[in-house]
Amino acid sequence: MTNQERADGEHRGLERRYDRVLLTRNSEYYCVRDTCLAVRDRKTGQFLTDHAAIGRQFAGSIRLSSDGRIESVTRRGEEPHPGMSLLFSNGKLGEELLTSKLRLIEHPSS
């Protein structure tokens, strides 16, 4: 996906106000300054207005081994890496959202 301008000047493609889009197997997480503002289903292309990640802070990411051991961790403010599961938090312990593995990070051009 890239930002695109139509001949009439109207924008189509990724929303430019997002500073990064985190793509997992099932979803695209549109974030600004670590806050998830929108989630899109990758199969249908539809934005999910009731997704639990919306409004939550990106808190970091984690990579687990096949036997469940923690292999690596990133914290808020650090860039996650493909293969890591994303963690979104609403600030309440035990209510974190852990996604499927990150596949790609896109940074829409401004």
Can you describe what's shown?
It is a single chain. This protein has 110 residues and is mainly beta. It has one domain. The chain has no helices and 9 strands. A hairpin with a 5-residue loop joins strand 1 and strand 2.
Strand content: over 45%
Average pLDDT, to the nearest integer? 85
State the distance separating the first and last CA atoms.
14 Å
Work out the helicity level.
Answer: under 10%
Whole-number total of structural domains:
1
Which parts are unreliable, with pLDDT below 50 for 5 consecutive residues or more? 1-14
Layout: helices, strands, pairs:
Blueprint: E1 4-5, E2 11-12, E3 20-24, E4 27-32, E5 35-41, E6 57-64, E7 70-75, E8 85-89, E9 97-106
Antiparallel strand pairs: 1-2, 3-4, 3-9, 4-5, 6-7, 6-8, 8-9
Name a few traits of the molecule.
110 residues; mainly beta; 7-stranded antiparallel β-sheet; two-stranded antiparallel ribbon; 9 strands; 0% helix; globular
Question: In a few lines, what is going on in this structure?
Answer:
The protein is mainly β and 110 residues long.
